[in-house]
Amino acid sequence: MKVLLAEDDPLIRGGLAEILNREGYSVVEAGDGDMAVQLFHSEAPDFVCLDIMMPKSSGYDACKKIRAARPRVPIIFISAKSEEIDKVVGLEMGADDYIVKPFGVKEVIARIRAVTRRCYAVREESSTSRIFRMGDLEVFPRELRARRGDSTIELSLRDIKILQLLNERRGQAIDRHTIFNQCWGEMYLPNSRTLDQHISQLRKRIELSPKTPTIIRTVHGVGYRFDG
Question: How far, in Å, CA of 217 to CA of 173, rounded?
Fold first, then answer.
């Protein structure tokens, strides 16, 4: 899923891009409002994050042009303008959410996941959005969640990609290079520690016993496998 991130402060933009990349999104970055509109037309992102106070064109102006082109694309305003009237203006212009700087990582993740669920809600069901089971775990890609009995487990977009890959190739050992290409993207430079850390954290959430996993099994010298 592709996100257009428009923010003129390079440090804030870099931090947000890192959060989005870590969650599993492909990020297109813009440093001003005009560039944001241009990239929106050329890159066709699934949703948009807009700063309000930007050079050349404001986030409000960019929002109007984006909404004129694709009325249903989700938009989040991210801004230091914290007055209630600013939020009201943003929401009345069609924004789906409004995040105030400074913000916490968990808040950004929660709001991004909520918008992602709305993206899935307006799409037709496809093979990448169908519910599937892995043992006693039921995975709901469109909700970015899994369920085991009455327990609900929150998942990132990347978590979903990993579980879908393992499920589609159940019984097969999937090598690290394939997992990186499918779940991080071909432009990502593979790092075994990155993958192992991610799998370790995912196991803590989905396995009944993370130390003796039954869903994501390690295949030494190769990668990982789900036996089904």
Answer: 9
d(CA 223, CA 218): 6
Contact 174, 223 (CB under 8 A): yes
CA end-to-end span of the chain, whole Å? 27
CB-hemisphere CA count at 13 Å for 155? 28
Distance, CA of 11 to CA of 184 (rounded, Å): 23
Overall pTM > 0.70: yes
Coil, strand or helix at 33: helix
- Kindly provide the b/e burial profile for residues 80-94, where b requires at least 16 CB atoms within 10 angstroms of the residue's own CB: ebeeeebbebbeeee
Q: Looking at domain 132-225, which of 3.40.50.10320, 3.20.20.70, 3.20.20.60, 1.10.10.10 is its CATH number? A: 1.10.10.10
52 by Cβ neighbours in 10 Å (0-12 / 13-18 / 19+) ranks as buried
Inter-axis angle of helices 10-23 and 157-168, to 10 degrees?
Answer: 30
Cα–Cα distance, 95 to 64 (Å, whole number)? 10
- The CATH architecture that domain 2-121 belongs to is 3-Layer(aba) Sandwich (3.40)
pLDDT in tens, 20-49: 999 999 999 999 999 999 999 999 999 999
Instruction: In whole angstroms, give the CA distance from residue 148 to residue 1.
Output: 26
If pLDDT is split at 50, 70 and 90, which confidence band does 96 have? Answer: confident
